[in-house]
């Protein structure tokens, strides 16, 4: 570090080789300018450059290219103190600027940001990094002011600069910072450029920054968004992409930044319960307790706890994991939430918990209450229908009525989002023996899926069509099922059965022979083929096939043999 410090001191003298006297504010202002050193993963120096503080709490700015690829960084203040960079606050590669936070042992000397930018023709001053109490710099004129994003500007300056002055502050006559020196200069060396400080100061982390390529090109930890709601979304995005240690560290940062927000504590509770380690269970309870302490709306916390326990319990087998995290406890938590506020989302959660506990009557009651609120949707009516159907002694017509209410949220022609509800209503109608109504729903389902359906769908629709004597449609559907899965014995047997029932005996026999070719031990195929032969008048051949079915264990074949052997 001594060698680096000497290099920096020498660099400071080089900066002032062309220097001129600066206004009296420079003596104090120089303390805000620092040297920045970035390191690779193997702790080798990556880059060195400049930066300066714009906030007494340790917020500083520099050039992004200095940090790209860095795994850690430190700053060396004008007083020679080395401070680590704790996290990145924002970055932009196009304007080559970065904003970061360093450790602090006291209030940092920071440059005041000018309320108004520099005007064309205004005199400005370049304040270099210096470890000397007396600091010299350079001055010049603003020759052009261009507007850029974030209500900021980009300056063209009539002032000599060098690579060693990149990211040094550009000041106005009053000692306020107006810009940050950029790379590049005119051919004659007398023209330079500066980014308006307001752009650098406005950099921030947003909810979507977690996947930002510019930020992810830096290995140094990133700060959280300053906005609380944005920070919560950032946590959500990070939860599936960070390993355990980094995720916990991020949660600690969130708790430090937003100590009165329940989210950090509840997420830590969820993390520890999901490790599956019994030694972590106490940690879970501690963070649950803390969440209840800091949040004034206790019902919200009880709801989150209930949801967390429900998710945990549905993810593990009934007799595994933490026994205290049971559906019964989840129900108790949601009831506590409901005792304070009867929010629709709480009722929905209670319904889900009761459903998981197989308490279908209570689940239906909760879902039904939701259906009389603004939260009502096709999904909530479907949930009510399912709970009603599973309730002992339920009337299927009531279930169908609930599914009708679910379908009322969609308009014809139906799209794919309506398909699951159409399919379920058709199933319920079939169970209630409303076969024609079921076929109509299956037809709408087919249209909503634009014909992209499985072989199983054709089988199910065919069975409903047979029940309401839509024979040609049934034949078409079972043929389509076999076409899609030509070696599926279940579909072939169904096809043979349909043809036999419709007295298309030759086609039926051909289908049964196809089945036996695929599997010579298919007793039902021998039985139905034998019966078909008898119906054609080929009694001897039919009895032979029936005997084969009997030998393969088919009980029905034996009774048919007795009937036709006389």
Secondary structure layout:
Blueprint: H1 2-15, E1 20-21, H2 26-29, E2 33-39, E3 45-53, E4 59-62, H3 64-67, E5 72-76, E6 82-92, E7 97-102, E8 123-126, E9 136-148, E10 152-158, E11 169-171, E12 177-185, E13 191-196, H4 197-202, H5 213-216, H6 228-239, H7 244-257, H8 262-273, H9 281-294, H10 298-315, H11 327-340, H12 344-356, H13 360-370, H14 378-390, H15 396-407, H16 419-431, H17 435-448, H18 455-467, H19 471-484, H20 489-501, H21 505-518, H22 523-535, H23 539-551, H24 555-564
Antiparallel strand pairs: 1-9, 2-3, 2-5, 3-4, 4-7, 5-6, 6-7, 8-9, 8-11, 9-10, 10-13, 11-12, 12-13
Helix pairs in contact: 6-7, 7-8, 8-9, 8-10, 10-11, 10-12, 11-12, 12-13, 13-14, 14-15, 15-16, 16-17, 17-18, 18-19, 19-20, 20-21, 20-22, 21-22, 22-23, 22-24, 23-24
Structure explained in plain terms:
By secondary structure, the chain is an alpha+beta fold. It is built from 24 helices and 13 strands. It has helices at 2-15, 26-29, 64-67, 197-202, 213-216, 228-239, 244-257, 262-273, 281-294, 298-315, 327-340, 344-356, 360-370, 378-390, 396-407, 419-431, 435-448, 455-467, 471-484, 489-501, 505-518, 523-535, 539-551, 555-564; strands spanning 20-21, 33-39, 45-53, 59-62, 72-76, 82-92, 97-102, 123-126, 136-148, 152-158, 169-171, 177-185, 191-196. A six-stranded antiparallel barrel has the order 8-9-10-13-12-11. A hairpin with a 5-residue loop joins strand 12 (177-185) and strand 13 (191-196). It is elongated, with a radius of gyration of 38 Å. The chain starts with a helix and ends with a helix.
């Amino acid at each position: 570090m001594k060698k680096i410090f000497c290099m920096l001191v020498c660099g400071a003298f080089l900066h002032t080789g062309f220097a001129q006297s600066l206004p009296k504010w420079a003596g104090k202002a120089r303390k805000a300018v620092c040297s920045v050193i970035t390191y690779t993963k193997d702790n080798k120096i990556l880059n060195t450059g400049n930066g300066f503080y714009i906030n007494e709490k340790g917020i500083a700015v520099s050039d992004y290219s200095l940090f790209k690829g860095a795994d850690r960084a430190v700053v060396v203040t004008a007083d020679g103190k080395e401070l680590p960079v704790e996290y990145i606050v924002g970055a932009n590669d196009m304007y080559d600027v970065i904003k970061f936070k360093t450790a602090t042992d006291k209030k940092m000397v920071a440059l005041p940001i000018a309320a108004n930018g520099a005007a064309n023709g205004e005199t400005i001053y370049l304040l270099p990094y210096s470890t000397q109490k007396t600091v010299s710099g350079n001055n010049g004129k603003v020759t052009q002011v261009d507007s850029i994003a974030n209500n900021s500007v980009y300056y063209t300056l009539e002032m000599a600069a060098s690579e060693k002055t990149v990211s040094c502050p550009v000041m106005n006559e009053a000692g306020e910072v107006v810009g940050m020196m950029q790379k590049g200069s005119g051919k004659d060396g007398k023209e330079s450029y500066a980014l308006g400080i307001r752009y650098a100061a406005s950099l921030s982390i947003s909810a979507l920054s977690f996947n930002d390529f510019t930020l992810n090109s830096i290995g140094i930890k990133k700060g959280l968004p300053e906005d609380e709601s944005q920070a919560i979304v950032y946590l959500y995005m990070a939860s599936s992409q960070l390993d355990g240690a980094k995720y916990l560290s991020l949660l600690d940062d969130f708790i430090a930044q937003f100590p009165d927000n329940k989210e950090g504590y509840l997420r830590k509770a969820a993390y520890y319960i999901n490790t599956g380690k019994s030694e972590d269970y106490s940690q879970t309870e501690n963070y649950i307790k803390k969440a209840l302490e800091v949040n004034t709306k206790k019902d919200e916390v009880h709801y989150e706890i209930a949801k967390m326990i429900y998710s945990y319990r549905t993810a593990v087998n009934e007799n595994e994991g933490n026994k205290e995290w049971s559906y019964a406890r989840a129900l108790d938590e949601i009831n506590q939430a409901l005792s304070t506020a009867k929010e629709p989302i709480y009722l929905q959660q209670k319904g889900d918990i009761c459903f998981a506990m197989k308490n279908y009557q209570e689940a239906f009651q909760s879902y039904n209450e939701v259906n009389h609120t603004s939260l009502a949707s096709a999904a909530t009516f479907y949930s009510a229908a399912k709970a009603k159907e599973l309730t002992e002694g339920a009337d299927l017509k009531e279930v169908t009525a609930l599914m009708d209410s679910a379908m009322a949220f969609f308009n014809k022609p139906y799209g794919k989002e309506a398909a699951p509800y159409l399919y379920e209503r058709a199933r319920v109608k079939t169970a209630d023996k409303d076969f024609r109504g079921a076929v109509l729903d299956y037809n709408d389902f087919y249209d909503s899926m634009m014909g992209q359906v499985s072989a199983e769908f054709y089988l199910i629709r065919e069975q409903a069509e047979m029940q309401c004597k839509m024979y040609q449609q049934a034949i078409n559907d079972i043929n389509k099922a076999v076409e899609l899965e030509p070696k599926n014995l279940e579909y072939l047997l169904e096809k043979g059965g349909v043809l036999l029932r419709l007295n298309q005996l030759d086609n039926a026999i051909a289908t049964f022979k196809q089945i036996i070719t695929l599997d010579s031990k298919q007793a039902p195929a021998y039985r139905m083929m034998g019966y078909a032969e008898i119906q054609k008048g080929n009694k001897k051949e039919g009895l032979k096939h029936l005997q084969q079915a009997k030998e393969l264990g088919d009980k029905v074949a034996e009774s048919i043999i007795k009937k036709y052997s006389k």
